[in-house]
């Protein structure tokens, strides 16, 4: 058991109950990889939090940093980020108090993006010019899931069109990937006129999951879940899974480590710190697919 997954023994991997993690892994491994589905957040979970000491952009930040919007709008969006992001990650405030503020942030940002009359064909260039980076080991993560036909649901409160472009440009947008996110609605001349459907923000992923019961219904034969997130709101992403048997939750703790350590250890089975690579999720997937 000691060396079941050696990557779990690293100093940057924290676990409150290692034995429980091993029991979950043993049970999932016994069931086989054809019973597995992976659900992952995108921004700052599949993408890096920082690189060379500089913050990496989220989907929203990619647009904000691009030529698709004016300097004035960029400044307003940056001000919004500095107002609301500290609230998003503040563990001293209850979620019920943060929720309306998150709706306020996303709504103001989306309204501003719509006012900018962004063109659909500007998105690819915005992503190309950005400093967005998938975490190290992403090729192995996406390719291995594809090779073993394991469904990957990327569940993001970011912007679906941008997210898709990031993984397309990295050549890992395989057919086993499904995205639930905020998608842009363009008019017939390709100009952004609204965002489609119900808003997904950081603390309503449970509602988002329940609106997509069809996806989870299709995956009913896969009751074992590997969940990956960087926020406590991401823990609700699997709420639509049918007849769940096991769930292994891997959390990336990117920011405010000291303040948030305990709540992450209490909520995620495995916590990765220090802008970790995808080495641990990849090792888990290798273990579960039998490619040890
Ligand atoms: N205007 C905004 C709104 C949100 N964010 C960040 O996006 C992330 C949400 O996406 P997930 O893939 O993690 O669900 C979240 O980290 C917000 O801080 C933003 O940058 N700008």
TrEMBL record:
Cell compartment(s), UniProt: Cytoplasm
GO biological process assignments: nucleotide metabolic process
Gene Ontology MF: a single term: 5'-nucleotidase activity
Pfam families: UMPH-1 (PF05822)
Primary residence: cytoplasm
GO cellular component: cytoplasm
Xref: InterPro entries: HAD-like_sf (IPR036412), HAD_sf (IPR023214), Pyrimidine_nucleotidase_eu (IPR006434)
Reaction(s) catalysed by this chain's protein: N(7)-methyl-GMP + H2O = N(7)-methylguanosine + phosphate; a ribonucleoside 5'-phosphate + H2O = a ribonucleoside + phosphate; CMP + H2O = cytidine + phosphate
Domain of life: Eukaryota
UniProt KW keywords: Cytoplasm, Hydrolase, Magnesium, Metal-binding, Nucleotide metabolism, Nucleotide-binding
Transcription regulation is among the record's keywords: no
EC number assigned by the record: 3.1.3.5
PANTHER family found in the cross-reference section: 5'-NUCLEOTIDASE, 7-METHYLGUANOSINE PHOSPHATE-SPECIFIC 5'-NUCLEOTIDASE
Description of how the protein assembles with itself and partners: Monomer.
NCBIfam families for this protein: HAD-SF-IE (TIGR01544)
Family indicated by similarity: Belongs to the pyrimidine 5'-nucleotidase family.
Task performed by this protein: Specifically hydrolyzes 7-methylguanosine monophosphate (m(7)GMP) to 7-methylguanosine and inorganic phosphate. The specific activity for m(7)GMP may protect cells against undesired salvage of m(7)GMP and its incorporation into nucleic acids. Also has weak activity for CMP. UMP and purine nucleotides are poor substrates.
Protein name listed in UniProt: 5'-nucleotidase
Native source organism of the sequence: Fundulus heteroclitus
